[in-house]
């Protein structure tokens, strides 16, 4: 539980805005101490964070955002045919079934369906053609207030466990460069990073997976001390291109022979150079890049 000062700091929001959204729009109902001071739960903070995104990023009125949030508490929306582009794929039925299990918070069925799909299809098809579009849909559903952050966290945890299981399956080659995989500070999404890490592990690379929202501080010493030769970064928003380039500039100075790969939906087209590749999200581009290397 957090007092209003701590909540305001975590959310980077003025206390007066939090109070206004609570009292005027009934956005949340925090607990109270015996002396009447507000106490905010993790769910309260997640709700306020979601509302902030709708207002600041999506231009929605706070009153409309609150209505949407409360509506999502009462019912879940069954996805329709035009929910996302993934419905047009040959795996739309599998994606829809997994989404429904996620919406109902049925972890047992969700895991059963994943087991079934991995038994029926090649693992690459499951990760790239079923899980990837599913996670995009779940992210969109959270932003739209269709599912709560608790649903998103549950599914993300299960999916990451599946990635980790496959990371351990593939043998690594000592002749290939040692890789570090991370997303820079401010990047919370890790789907693209997980997919590219899987691609590298499939092809024999030893990859140390650091994960999302990794600060630059300390990385210079780490890459030199542990002899990392290749770093892959992933960003979901073009707004983080500058941050990603800063990481590569700084680490290049610390270790000039270091090579970098930048992927993810946030990558804007840039010209590759001697130690940097901008690969985006296309698996065929990744395969072409690997075929052209002399590792």
Automatic annotation (TrEMBL):
Span of domain HTH merR-type: 1-71
Domain of life from the UniProt record: Bacteria
Q: Which residues form the B12-binding domain?
A: 176-295
Instruction: Give the CDD domains listed for this entry.
Output: B12-binding_like (cd02065), HTH_MlrA-CarA (cd01104)
Q: Name one GO molecular function term.
A: cobalamin binding
Keywords, A to Z, come to: DNA-binding, Transcription, Transcription regulation
> What is this protein's record name?
MerR family transcriptional regulator
User: What lineage, starting at the top, does this entry show?
Assistant: Bacteria, Bacillati, Bacillota, Bacilli, Bacillales
């Amino acid at each position: 539980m957090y007092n209003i000062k701590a909540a305001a700091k975590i959310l980077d929001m003025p206390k007066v805005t939090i109070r206004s959204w609570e009292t005027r729009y009934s956005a949340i109902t925090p607990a109270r101490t015996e002396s009447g001071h507000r106490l905010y739960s993790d769910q309260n903070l997640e709700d306020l964070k979601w509302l902030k995104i709708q207002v600041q990023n999506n231009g929605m009125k706070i009153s409309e955002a609150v209505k949407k949030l409360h509506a999502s508490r009462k019912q879940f929306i069954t996805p329709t045919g035009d929910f996302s582009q993934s419905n047009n794929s040959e795996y739309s039925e599998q994606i829809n079934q997994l989404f429904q299990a996620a919406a109902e918070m049925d972890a047992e069925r969700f895991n059963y369906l994943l087991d079934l799909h991995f038994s029926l299809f090649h693992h690459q098809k499951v990760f790239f053609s079923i899980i990837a579009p599913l996670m995009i849909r779940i992210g969109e559903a959270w932003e739209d207030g269709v599912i709560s952050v608790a649903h998103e966290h549950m599914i993300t945890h299960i999916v990451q466990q599946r990635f980790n299981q496959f990371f351990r399956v593939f043998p690594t080659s000592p002749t290939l460069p040692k890789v570090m995989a991370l997303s820079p500070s401010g990047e919370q999404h890790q789907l693209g990073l997980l997919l590219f890490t899987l691609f590298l592990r499939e092809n024999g690379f030893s990859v140390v997976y650091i994960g999302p929202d990794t600060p630059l501080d300390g990385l210079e010493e780490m890459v030199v001390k542990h002899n990392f030769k290749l770093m892959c970064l992933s960003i979901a928003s073009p707004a983080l291109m500058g941050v990603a380039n800063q990481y590569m500039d700084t680490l290049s100075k610390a270790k000039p022979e270091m090579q970098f790969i930048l992927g993810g939906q946030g990558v804007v087209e840039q010209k590759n150079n001697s130690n940097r590749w901008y690969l985006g999200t296309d698996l065929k581009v990744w395969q072409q890049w690997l075929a052209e290397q002399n590792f």
